[in-house]
Amino acid sequence: MLGQFRVKKGGTYTAIQSMYVKRGGTYKQTLGALVKGSGSYGSVAALNLNFLTGTLDPRITFSRADATTCASYYNAMGLLTQAAANVPRFDYDPITLQPKGLLIEESRTNLLTYSQDFSNAAWTKDTNVSNSSGTNTAPDGTLTANTISYSASTTGWRATFQATSQAVSTTYTVSLYAKKSASNFLFIRATAVAGNPYAWFNLATGTVGTVQSGITSTSITYAGSGWYRCSITFTTGPSIAVNRIDIGLTDADGGSTATLGASAFVWGAQLEAGAFATSYIPTTAAAVTRAADSANMTGTNFSSWFNASAGTLSTEWDVAALNQTTNPGIASIDDSTTSNRVLMFQPSNYVDCRVAFSGASSNPSNATTITANTTVKSAIAYAAGSAQMAVKGVTGTAGSPSGAFVPNRLAIGGGVSLGPLNGHIRRLAYYNTRLSDAQLQGITT
Question: How much is the pTM?
Answer without folding.
Answer: 0.90
